[in-house]
Amino acid sequence: MTGKDRYEIILAGSGGQGLVVSGIMLGEGAILDGKNVVQTVSYGIASRGGFSQAEVIIDQDEIIFQQVLQPDVVLALTEEAMDMYSGLAPAGTLVFYDSTLLKSRPGDNLSGYPFTQMAAEHGHAGTANMIALGAISAATGLVKTQSLIRVTQKRFSPQIAAINVRALYSGVGLVTGGPGRS
Questions:
Q1: Which band of pLDDT confidence, cut at 50, 70 and 90, is reported for residue 24?
Q2: pTM of the predicted model, to two decimals?
Q3: How many CB atoms lie within 10 A of CB 77?
Q4: DSSP class of 43
Q5: Does the pLDDT at position 103 exceed 80?
Q6: CA 33 to chain centre
Q7: What is the rounded average pLDDT of the residues 20-45?
Q8: Does the first or last residue of the chain, that is N or C, have fewer Cβ atoms within 10 Å of its Cβ?
């Protein structure tokens, strides 16, 4: 999937999983890569625990229509999100899901990784979204990992940024087969 000019991404799950922040950071990373970005969010009445979704469009050219129509990549962090989007995988959408929280699903373009388990093992359960971002960036090339690191270092205090950068590298390691960088 690397080398495309346009990507449409959906990050879906539950409020409190960091999906909105992940969408913003993904967009900011793409801007650092010199691309145009549109990022939107939607969530249920209950912000923590209710359905939450961030949509990001990354394009080399001007973005006219600002809504995802045919996602290239989906991150599903709840069964509800997976039920909504797993049907897109046979048509070519890459669907990443958290195998810690969701039942395993076989099929082309379905990739389960233990994002939440890894975050807990690192001692920072709230970094599952960052591990997922690292995995997605490594698998697709839609944004450079280095750009995500720069955004992370700008957005968070040095101590929190260091934790999140380690999480990004852990996600990269999931996809590349390496340990990532600690």
A1: very high
A2: 0.90
A3: 27
A4: E
A5: yes
A6: 17
A7: 89
A8: C
Model confidence pLDDT, tens digit, residues 139-151: 999 999 999 999 9
Which single residue is written with the structure tokens 């799950």? Answer: 13
CATH class held by domain 6-173 = alpha beta
pLDDT confidence of 181, banded at 50, 70, 90? very low
At 44, is the secondary structure helix, strand, or coil? coil
Kindly state the tokens that stand for 42.
């939607």
How many residues can be counted in the chain? 182
The full set of domain ranges for the chain reads: 6-173
Q: What long-range pairs does 114-120 form, CB within 8 A, spacing at least 24?
A: 115/77, 115/171, 118/170, 118/174, 119/167
User: In angstroms, rounded to a whole number, what is the distance separating the alpha carbons of residues 97 and 108?
Assistant: 13
- Beta carbons within 8 Å of 71's beta carbon, 6+ residues apart: 8, 9, 10, 85, 88, 93
Question: Residue 156: CB partners within 8 Å, gap ≥ 6?
Answer: 164
DSSP state of 119: H
Q: Are 86 and 95 in contact (CB under 8 A)?
A: yes
The answer to whether residues 71 and 91 touch, using CB atoms and an 8 Å cutoff, is no
Distance CA 20, CA 53 (A): 7
Q: pLDDT tens digit string along 119-162? A: 999 899 899 999 999 999 999 999 999 999 999 999 999 999 99
